[in-house]
Amino acid sequence: MAEADQGEMENEAVIEKVKKFLNDGCGCALGAKGGPCSEQFSEAVVLFNLYNCLELSNDELDLVVLASIQAFTYSEAVGVKRSRSPRSFFYFQSLPICKEMFLHFYGLSDSRF
């Protein structure tokens, strides 16, 4: 099997997994009125972002994900005692989302993240 065909099959599997996730919902309470955050976005918006990410190399995708995480990570003051680990927050289009939704937006597995 050609390498391009295998990559295409992997992408198809990721797309189907994301569609199933959107259909089932994430089950968190970060969305509007305490509902699932996955309901805040249309399938078209999620898939548009996913298709863009699937076109990137692994290194390029890593940079996109890192930039997204860095944009919303709490910054600590230097020299001040830390009371607990800083919490990461995930956002898409300025809306809070759960980690599962974040992973599906970018086509990432838990282990890759």
Structure description:
This protein is mainly alpha-helical and 113 residues long. It contains four helices and two strands; from the N terminus they run αααββα. A two-stranded antiparallel ribbon has the order 1-2. The mean pLDDT is 82.
Layout of helices and strands:
Blueprint: H1 3-24, H2 43-54, H3 58-71, E1 90-92, E2 95-97, H4 99-106
Antiparallel strand pairs: 1-2
Helix pairs in contact: 1-2
Short description:
The protein is mostly helical and 113 residues long.
Number of helices: 4
Mass-distribution shape: globular
Mean pLDDT: 82
Strand order of the largest sheet: 1-2
Distance between the termini: 28 Å
Quantity of strands, as a count: 2
**Main sheet: strands, sense, barrel:** 2 strands, antiparallel
Class by SSE composition: mainly alpha
Give me the Rg, rounded: 16 Å
- Helical content stands at 40-55%
Low-confidence parts: none
Instruction: Output the helix-strand order.
Output: HHHEEH
Strand content: 5-15%
